[in-house]
Specification:
Length: about 400
């Protein structure tokens, strides 16, 4: 009996040992694999950012999720593919931001063109004609007087555009229109926070109040008609475009000066072209032309340059005249191309006054009267009257 019990116990131990060895021979469980974080790209650029691309924009940054193991959704994969295509297109313009480093080089280039023109017109041709006498002296005097007057107005307008700030968003700016009382009043802190959260949600694609927009690059609210310039790296009031010739943005506070610069440039280049036309024609005749080879070469080059500038500036000026008559900017013209009516179009006379003011004495000089600055908030770039029938249109 005792022998049977001992044999049964030994059999149990043997079975337990075999079970343990079987467990040891089992393959180890597979390791837990966490996939890498899924990148989430910014949404497609808005119409405003698309225009910035055309005017020298840069690629928007990408963000990555902190939670690992998140599987991309169908919408996320679509955004990734679209953002990749946009990024490839934007990389071409990313190098154009180097134009901000040109700075004084562009100003020196403009002054060099002015210097060559002055040498050809005054020193080589019409200055010596003053000593001839008779009708030639009177014609030369008239050309020189008009030339110097237009040149002075051109340089005054040019440096006004260069050194005048186009207008930036004031610190802690917020929309202060109280629709219930029908008058302007500062928003309370809770109203401001609510509006800020609403605009931040608009920045990622949610619906919100269209009266004010939010800049994701400056992290601040944007007033109506305000846009971000990727070259300057700031939001500009009523931004039209960034001009490399003036090394500055063209906005609410210097748009009039820019238009006057175009106007006087066209008049000056046209005058130079017409005054040098007889000398240019003589190059192709058999008549002996007095003057040194350097003076003749400078005269020929000056005629060609001024003819090219007068034609190009004419087309550019015609475009901006049409924009002023409709009370819009280059960026806004792109944004509202699908809208037949524009809420800021108050008629040609009022539209013109919002750029040049009401005082006629100041229309043709790069300055405003104190009366216009005091009575016309639109000249400050923050408040613009709208058409009553289109007051609900998006800004």
């Amino acid at each position: 009996m005792g022998n049977q019990a001992r044999a049964h116990a030994g059999e149990k131990k043997q079975n337990a040992a075999n079970s343990t060895s079987d467990l040891l021979l089992l393959p180890p469980p597979p390791p837990i694999f966490n996939p890498p974080p899924t990148p989430i790209h910014d949404p497609l650029p808005t119409a405003e950012e698309a225009v910035e691309v055309l005017v020298l924009a840069s690629r928007p940054p990408c963000r990555y999720t902190e939670a690992a193991g998140a599987a991309p959704t169908a919408a996320g994969r679509g955004d990734m593919h679209r953002s990749a295509g946009v990024a490839m297109a934007w990389n071409v313009f990313r190098f154009c931001t180097a134009l901000r480093g040109l700075g004084s080089i562009m100003i020196l280039l403009v002054l060099a063109i002015v210097g060559v023109t002055y040498y050809a017109v005054v020193l080589c041709n019409y200055g010596p004609a003053l000593l001839v006498g008779g009708s030639s002296t009177l014609a030369a005097l008239a050309v020189l007087l008009l030339f110097h007057f237009l040149l002075a107005m051109l340089l005054w307008s040019y440096f006004s555009v260069v050194f005048t700030h186009p207008g930036s968003v004031p610190p802690n700016w917020n929309l202060d229109f109280d629709e219930e009382r029908g008058e302007t009043a500062p928003l309370s802190s809770s109203e401001y926070s609510s509006q800020m959260n609403s605009q931040q949600s608009m920045a990622v694609g949610d619906t919100g109040n269209p009266r004010v927009r939010y800049c994701r690059k400056c992290n601040q609210l944007k007033p109506p008609r305000c846009h971000h310039c990727s070259v300057c790296g700031r939001c500009i009031l009523k931004m039209d475009h960034h001009c490399v010739w003036v090394v500055n943005c063209v906005g609410a506070l210097n748009y009039k000066y820019f238009l006057l610069f175009l106007f006087y440039t066209f008049l000056e280049t046209t005058l130079v072209t017409l005054s040098l036309l007889p000398h240019f024609i003589s190059f192709f005749s058999d008549v002996d032309i007095p003057g040194s080879p350097a003076a003749l070469a400078t005269t020929f080059l000056t005629f060609v340059l001024n003819l090219a500038f007068s034609l190009s500036v004419l087309g550019f000026m015609i475009m901006h005249v049409s924009l002023v008559s409709a009370n819009t900017t280059t960026i806004e013209a792109y944004e509202k191309k699908t809208s037949p009516r524009w809420m800021y179009d108050l008629g040609r006379k009022k539209n013109f006054a919002q750029v040049f003011g009401n005082d006629k004495k100041y229309w043709f000089i790069p300055a405003y009267s104190e009366e216009d600055l005091r009575r016309m908030p639109a000249l400050q770039g923050l408040d613009y009257p709208v058409r009553s029938d289109l007051d609900g249109q998006e800004l």
